[in-house]
Amino acid sequence: MKIFLNEIQTEIEENCTAYKLRNKVDKNCDVVILNGFPLKEDKVLKEYDRLTLIERGKIPTKDELERVMIARHTPNVHNKLKAGKVAVLGLGGLGSNIAISLSRVGVGEIILVDYDVVEPSNLNRQQYFVKHIGMKKTDALKSIIDGINPFVKIKTKDIFVTKENIDFLKECDIVIEAFDDPKNKATLCNMVLRNFKDKYLIASSGMAGYYDSNIIQTKKIRDKFYICGDFEHEAKEGEGLMAPRVAICANHMANLAMKILIEDIKKD
């Protein structure tokens, strides 16, 4: 009988169980993942099951790490995400969270776009550390992602986005607007909607303060254009952007991008 053991096709005996095979291969592997889900009790293996064995606390090789990621997502999902190309425009509270979530799920290529540097007030909601203060956000975020998922191809652009310099969006499947300034948000969305009608656009509106998390939502505005947020609570004096709601909105956007790559975009 054939199964995939650590993503390598392997011949095993009939009625073999996951734990029995684990004990035969390496008893030190204390995390056993079957078809993308960690096992809590032993189970008989079926033809073409995918079994991944992991030794807790041991740093895997690069090949082993990729096989583990494939196992958690299943190959079909993993391959679609790996083929995806997403541009994240603005690397503040939204963009830094979005980029990290997309890298964790294994999106193959992410273009990080921002012209700013990390400064102390960013740390209340953005995914940077004290050591990054003064660094370009593109460089700081790239270094973080490199430590999370070395299989993601990261491109950086230290630019203020204008209609004269957005040709790079032609290579993307999805454009994510993650600016703080409402005027810049509107300008970017209009540029993308006019000039890149074949691209998916995900924008945001309303995530300030500490209001109910459940009013943040994802809305389809028209074909290939979505907005995430509560559509009401913009940042203003006395009501700033705070980590929890910003991260919730960011992950609405990241989850939508993932869904589009898996379900809507057809790759050859």
Automatic annotation (TrEMBL):
Q: Where is the ThiS-like ubiquitin domain?
A: 1-57
Q: What UniProt keywords are attached to this protein's entry?
A: Nucleotidyltransferase, Transferase
Instruction: Record the organism.
Output: Intestinibacter bartlettii
Write down what this protein is called: Sulfur carrier protein ThiS adenylyltransferase ThiF
Instruction: Give a yes or no for keyword Protein transport in this entry.
Output: no
Q: Which Gene3D superfamilies match?
A: NAD(P)-binding Rossmann-like Domain
UniProt-listed NCBIfam families: PRK08644.1, thiF_fam2
Keyword Ligase applies:
no
* Superkingdom of origin organism: Bacteria
Gene Ontology MF terms: nucleotidyltransferase activity
Xref: InterPro entries:
ThiF/MoeB/HesA, ThiF_fam2, ThiF_NAD_FAD-bd, ThiS-like_dom, Ubiquitin-activating_enz
What would be one Pfam family of this protein? ThiS-like
Q: Which residues form the THIF-type NAD/FAD binding fold domain?
A: 75-264
